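Case study B.
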Amino acid sequence: MGIAENLAQVQERIARAAEKAGRDPGEILLVGATKMNDADRVREAIRAGLPCCGENRVQELLEKNEAGAYEGAALHFIGTLQKNKAKYLVGLVSLIHSVDSEGLMQELSRQALKRGLVQDILLEVNTGGEASKSGFAPSELPAALEKAGQYSGIRVRGLMTIPPVCRSPEENLPYFRLLRQLFIDNGEKKYDNVVMDFMSMGMSGDFEAAIACGANIVRVGTAIFGVRHYPAPHV
Ligand SMILES: *Cc1c(COP(=O)(O)O)cnc(C)c1O
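Model:
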């Protein structure tokens, strides 16, 4: 099946999951995870109605942006971001999902102030407590949100998580519920430069479960673009 058909199916599944949860489908933003898809395929998805693209590598994003791949859609960054690359994204993407340290918050703020703008970000939470994953531990969130008050170049708009790899979507429910609880608990307190609007969770295998738990941003790659073929490693 082509990208347009896949996209229509994903949108239909989002709508059904939202209705099942008693939610308005219109409040859920679909971010197409466009990594490893070239500018032509990204344009095809946007023509078919993809409202937002999410890239996870800075170099790839810059190259495709240069080629005009994202015209007509919003652009987010969803991957691990090194501090020294923050400067390439500030002002170019409307939301950075994956801010995982106070040092990165500080650098993003510095770059935003230089450009006279405010960069919207999400804080990534390591809900599974995995050593291999980046993100704030749930217990570190209040301090990080407090710290955001010192960085007037950023505005924290919510939380994002990538749960551990699970065999079934149901196994991810505890992680999605945890993010929802953190979103509620931390959203109740007033922090400067923090407006808790977004919960970014759910990918191709589990976005319906995430929507059941309150996700209002889902990041979907494979279900729209097909299986990614990673280049074979050099031997
Ligand atoms: C690739 C990617 C996704 C989408 O994954 P699929 O399983 O292909 O839907 C979501 N979030 C992030 C951060 C990604 O890098």
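The chain has one domain: 3-225. The remaining cases will be described in the next quarterly update.
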